[in-house]
Amino acid sequence: MERITLKGERHACGGPGQFILGRAEDVCPMLLQSYAGQVQLIYLDPPFGTGDTFTMQSGGKKSVTIPTYADTLNADAYLAMMRAVLLACYEMLSEDGSLYLHVDYRKSAVLRVLLDEIFGEKNFVNEIIWAYKSGGRSTKHYSRKHDNILFYRKSPKQYFDIQSIGVPRGPVRRNHMKRGVDDLGRVYYSIRANGKTYTYDEDTLVYPSDVWDDIEHLHQRDPERTGYSTQKPEALLRRIIGASSRPGDLVMDLFSGSGTTAAVAAKMDRAWVAADASPIALCMLRKRLLGAHQEFSLFDTSHAMAFTYELGDLAASGMTAKKTESSICASVQEDAALRYVALGHDENGIFLPATHTFFPKAGDTLRAAPQENVLQAVDAYGRQGFWSL
């Protein structure tokens, strides 16, 4: 096998979407060339300025602790980074587009000032409080159990559809309302105020306010959890994407992390663009989206998913391969610590996988047609390599 260098990979499903491996401030100039004025919704969940380095446990038989990202920029560097990103975001948004910036008490004040400067104070829409219940209580101050989501529009032409995220009132009585049944047997609730009677039935939609206390924080055993630090729940992104974009619109996330934004956008029939500096984020998104889209047509390219990256170093593939006239067979070696393996071919420097597997075990084999003569192997740290067979 001969080591080769490729600049990206493309899958037939998981999109339509594109992931770029790189720091947000570095990829923005490239994205501006392609997406200026075209993005309907941008959701950003940047580092919160904690000063911490985050890790996760990789899955598989040989589990290891791996770093995901370091939140260690000083205050000046952090503000410079966010200024560059937010300026680019403003230019990439469509005239009716919106930006949601997810932070907490550490950076909400300084970033609110920066957003006012870039977007204009008149284009501030809401400061959303996401209040959640999670473990741990402080005795030195009131326990900090909420995040701040700063919601800005590009212009007064902003698209916003709160009806799309309303939920039926249901059978629960609210605000001391009186329960009744009409002539057709339908349940309704009524309340009298200022000389008027207001009536609502069970199907009347209730819309969220700017305090979101109905979306739970992901707990350790939540089936949604990927193991990635600071992962946000899909319900949070469903609300944001549902209210501020339409099917077919383009959604962007430049701090992709666990890949929640792209995963929800794909489920809601939106196109997406995501970026992150961590190769673990790339691996996480690949697994999350390929796992959710098992069936696809080779003739349908409308849901293609692309990855663009620079290669890390992977000293050895942990694989052996045998080629015959009828097939390619790649086998995992005994001492391999791989997390993803694929067979495919090279098309102008882009890897097109034909078959893949996650968390391969020693002795596992991967078979493909003989023309699929490129092997991709990724280890627990997100380092990857390509080999021509």
What does this structure look like?
The chain is globular and about 85 Å long. It has six helices and 25 strands. A hairpin with a 7-residue loop joins strand 5 and strand 6. The strands form five sheets. The protein has a 15-stranded mixed sheet with strand order 1-25-24-21-22-2-18-3-17-16-4-7-9-8-15, sandwiched between helices. The chain has a three-stranded antiparallel sheet with strand order 11-12-13, with no helix packed on it. It has helices spanning 24-35, 75-92, 108-119, 234-244, 260-267, 279-292, and strands at 2-4, 8-11, 17-21, 39-44, 53-57, 65-70, 93-103, 124-131, 146-153, 167-168, 178-181, 187-193, 196-201, 205-206, 211-212, 250-253, 271-276, 305-308, 319-323, 328-332, 338-347, 350-358, 365-368, 374-379, 384-388. Helix 1 (24-35) runs parallel beside helix 2 and helix 4 (234-244) crosses helix 5.
Question: Top keywords for this entry?
Answer:
globular; 15-stranded mixed beta sheet; three-stranded antiparallel beta sheet; alpha/beta
Quick summary:
The chain has 389 residues and is an alpha/beta fold. The chain has helices spanning 24-35, 75-92, 108-119, 234-244, 260-267, 279-292; strands at 2-4, 8-11, 17-21, 39-44, 53-57, 65-70, 93-103, 124-131, 146-153, 167-168, 178-181, 187-193, 196-201, 205-206, 211-212, 250-253, 271-276, 305-308, 319-323, 328-332, 338-347, 350-358, 365-368, 374-379, 384-388.
